[in-house]
């Protein structure tokens, strides 16, 4: 459903609203009255965004906390747009775009601000994947800033303390120094900025330095992330971390209380003036990182083995993106070490064999309506098959080759058709589904629990686009804190066991290797009549650990097959399956999670009940996706950008919101 401009500046024939200068939204067939919307002229915050959602429990071990659902309306802009998971970082990115910066310039500024307002999700102590579209050349580039294992890591690095002490790291692997990979975010941002930036690197740090120096109110998600007793106990282990996140009496800092970070302001100032070398060289920042990783906190924590040489030797990499056709568009995603691009391409390639337009949602509203049983079933089955291949075959291709030495072997049309034939519309595939037979590859890999991140979608007035997913792994990373920022626990995305049933695990630890990821920043392009890449159409992506793949896939299908607008596609019920459990997000207002007598949560919901009748095991726990989407449309003969931010997080959309 797409917005239509009419002379009176009202939007009709739609159930989801788009914000433009002084628009009036008419809900029409969805029911409801006309709602006047205030103008947002160029990056202006209206003071009502973010933080309205109520904290809800998610699944055990879920990637970050679930924060409920606060409905949002689509935003329309003319030439540039920014969507991040926090209003302050969106504002910083939008201001850079307004000043004439590129999408990469905006990404740098936003990431530094996110380090302050969303430290539980990302920061310079973690890693980042970037997809970049250059409008002038029409080329898509992928930039790999994934963390790396230290040179001293052996294949049992996560499994036990040493060859002579074969006991697990303490207090747990994910809280030990063994979990920390050499960070990549600054190197990859610097690489991308050197190639595509317009504004000076040093100026892009100014918003974050000002926030860190002057202070800012703690956002709701940040406050919730440090509030429970087990989290506080882990924070207290690191005195630097405790001093920042806790009050003098040991209690967690509260939402909206003012906090500043002079240590991070100093760190940012050094990096702004000296570049990423200030972080990766042998100076005080790198020394502090290495010392923190080696800390045992009085014998309570197993040390990591990262050295200054590991910091100095870190390299970001420019890689070829995974691009494939889907119906009348081209979809591009991240290559290994991320599994996201291949897995999303597989899901789309499998369901391309079905007429998905027949299985769209009903009762369409601003929240994306009610998904159909067959629509979710087909997506879930495609997900089961894609995750089966992902778990067996995908790892860091600098160390482990894909079948046939190319992802084409996993996403080509004949293979996707073969996999689609395994799907029935009347019953579910018994789980776990088997991986496809892609040749004699003596590898095996387990399904791993992966954790949270954050995502940014950005487009500038030159037509360039960034889809960027950035992470420190678990909420609050490894609970190691230095120089005002948290260090990741990304190495736990490796398999701790190097062998399974006598076979080497593709995703085992090796020195200098990058752990497999599920991050799936995605760009979509129209296709020309001759099959070549046409104009940019859509950017999307999400945090969410291993569930990122299914979040992104449902958003793409919602926009491409079911013709929802950007906000509806993002807001729609989160659903999908990872070859273990089918998730239907119970935080969504269109899902009934009540428990009937003698039944299960969700049995009163027609969608959940229909899926269970097909044989699916359905989990209705609250989801914590952080999806964003920017879609370029032609409105009244003019180009316009339609943006959506996930109602499950604090994010917003900003841009030059004048009439196209």
Could you characterize the architecture of this molecule?
The radius of gyration is 23 Å and the shape is globular. It contains 18 helices and 28 strands. 27% of the residues lie in helices and 18% in strands. A hairpin with a 2-residue loop joins strand 26 and strand 27. The model is unreliable at 1-40 and 48-62 (pLDDT under 50).
Short structural summary:
The protein is α+β, with helices and mostly antiparallel strands and 660 residues long.
Describe the structure using short key phrases.
660 residues; alpha+beta; eight-stranded mixed β-sheet; seven-stranded antiparallel β-sheet; 27% helix; disordered N terminus
Radius of gyration: 23 Å
Largest sheet: 8 strands, mixed
Going by helix content, strand content and strand pairing, the class is: alpha+beta
Taken from the alpha-carbon principal axes, the silhouette is globular
Q: How many DSSP H or I helices?
A: 18
From the N-terminal CA to the C-terminal CA, the straight-line distance is 18 Å
Q: Estimate the strand proportion.
A: 15-25%
Helical residue percent? Answer: 25-40%
Which strand order does the major sheet show? Answer: 2-5-27-26-22-21-13-12
Write the layout of secondary structure elements.
Layout: E1 10-11, E2 18-19, E3 24-25, E4 35-36, E5 74-77, E6 81-84, H1 87-98, H2 103-117, E7 127-134, E8 139-145, H3 185-196, H4 206-214, E9 216-217, H5 220-225, H6 229-236, H7 239-245, E10 258-259, H8 262-274, H9 277-280, H10 284-294, H11 308-313, E11 317-319, E12 322-326, E13 329-333, H12 340-351, H13 373-393, H14 408-411, H15 413-420, E14 443-444, E15 453-459, E16 465-471, E17 480-482, E18 485-487, E19 499-500, E20 503-505, E21 522-527, E22 533-541, H16 548-560, H17 566-571, E23 575-577, E24 582-584, H18 606-613, E25 618-619, E26 628-635, E27 638-645, E28 652-655
Parallel strand pairs: 1-3, 2-5, 14-20, 24-25
Antiparallel strand pairs: 3-4, 5-27, 6-15, 6-28, 7-8, 7-16, 8-11, 9-10, 12-13, 13-21, 15-16, 17-18, 19-20, 21-22, 22-26, 23-24, 26-27
Helix pairs in contact: 1-2, 2-3, 2-4, 4-8, 12-13, 12-15, 12-16, 13-18
């Amino acid at each position: 459903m797409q917005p239509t401009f009419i002379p009176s500046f009202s939007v009709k024939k739609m159930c989801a609203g788009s914000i433009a200068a002084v628009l009036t939204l008419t809900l029409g067939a969805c029911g409801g009255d006309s709602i006047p919307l205030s103008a947002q002229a160029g990056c202006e915050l209206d003071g009502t965004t973010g933080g309205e959602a109520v904290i809800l429990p998610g699944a055990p071990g879920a990637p970050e906390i679930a924060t409920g659902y606060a409905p949002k309306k689509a935003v329309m802009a003319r030439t540039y747009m920014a969507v991040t998971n926090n209003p302050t970082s969106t504002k910083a990115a939008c201001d850079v775009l307004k000043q004439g910066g590129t999408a990469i310039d905006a990404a740098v500024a936003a990431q530094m601000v996110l380090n302050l307002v969303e430290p539980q999700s990302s920061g310079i102590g973690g890693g980042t994947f970037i997809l970049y579209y250059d409008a002038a050349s029409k080329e898509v580039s992928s930039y790999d800033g994934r963390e790396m294992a230290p040179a001293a890591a052996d294949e049992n690095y996560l499994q036990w303390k040493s060859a002579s002490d074969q006991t697990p790291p303490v207090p747990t692997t994910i809280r030990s120094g063994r979990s920390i990979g050499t960070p990549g975010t600054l190197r990859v941002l610097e690489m991308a900025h050197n190639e595509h930036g317009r504004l000076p690197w040093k100026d892009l740090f100014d918003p974050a330095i000002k926030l860190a120096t002057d202070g800012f109110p703690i956002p709701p998600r940040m406050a919730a992330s440090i509030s429970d007793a087990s989290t506080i106990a882990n924070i207290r282990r690191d005195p630097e971390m405790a001093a920042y996140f806790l009050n003098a009496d040991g209690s967690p800092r509260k939402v909206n209380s003012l906090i500043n970070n002079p240590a991070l302001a100093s760190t940012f100032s050094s990096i702004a003036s000296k570049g990423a070398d200030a972080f990766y060289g042998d100076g005080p920042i790198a020394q502090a990182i290495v010392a923190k990783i080696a800390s045992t906190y009085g014998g309570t924590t197993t040390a990591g083995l990262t050295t200054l040489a590991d910091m100095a030797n870190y390299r970001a990499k420019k890689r070829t993106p995974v691009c494939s056709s889907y119906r009348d568009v081209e979809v591009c995603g991240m290559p290994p070490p991320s599994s996201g691009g291949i897995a999303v391409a597989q899901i789309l390639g499998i369901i391309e064999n079905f007429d998905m337009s027949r299985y769209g949602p009903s009762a369409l509203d601003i929240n994306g309506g009610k998904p159909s049983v067959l629509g979710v079933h087909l997506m879930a089955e495609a997900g089961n098959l894609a995750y089966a291949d992902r778990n067996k075959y995908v790892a860091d291709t600098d160390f482990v080759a894909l079948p046939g030495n190319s992802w084409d072997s996993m996403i080509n049309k004949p293979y996707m058709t073969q996999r689609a034939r395994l799907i029935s519309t009347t019953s579910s595939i018994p789980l776990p589904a088997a991986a496809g037979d892609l040749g004699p590859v003596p590898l095996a890999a387990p399904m791993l629990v992966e954790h949270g991140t954050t995502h940014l979608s950005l487009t500038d007035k030159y037509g360039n686009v960034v889809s960027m997913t950035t992470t420190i792994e678990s909420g609050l990373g490894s609970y190691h804190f230095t120089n005002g920022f948290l260090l990741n626990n990304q190495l736990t995305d490796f398999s701790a066991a190097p062998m399974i049933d006598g076979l080497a695990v593709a995703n085992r630890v090796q020195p200098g290797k990058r752990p497999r990821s599920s991050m799936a920043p995605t760009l979509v392009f129209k296709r020309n009549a001759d099959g070549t890449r046409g104009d940019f159409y859509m950017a999307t992506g999400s945090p969410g650990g291993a569930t990122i793949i299914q979040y992104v896939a449902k958003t793409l299908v919602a926009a491409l097959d079911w013709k929802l607008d950007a906000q509806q596609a993002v807001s729609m019920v989160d659903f999908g399956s990872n070859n273990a459990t089918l998730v239907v997000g119970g935080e969504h207002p269109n899902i009934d999670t009540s428990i009937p007598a003698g039944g299960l949560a969700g049995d009163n919901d027609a969608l959940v009940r229909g899926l269970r009748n097909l044989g699916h095991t359905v989990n209705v726990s609250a989801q914590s996706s952080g999806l964003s989407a920017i879609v370029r449309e032609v409105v009244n003969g003019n180009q316009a950008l339609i943006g959506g931010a996930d109602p499950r997080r604090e994010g917003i959309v900003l841009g030059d919101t004048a009439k196209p």
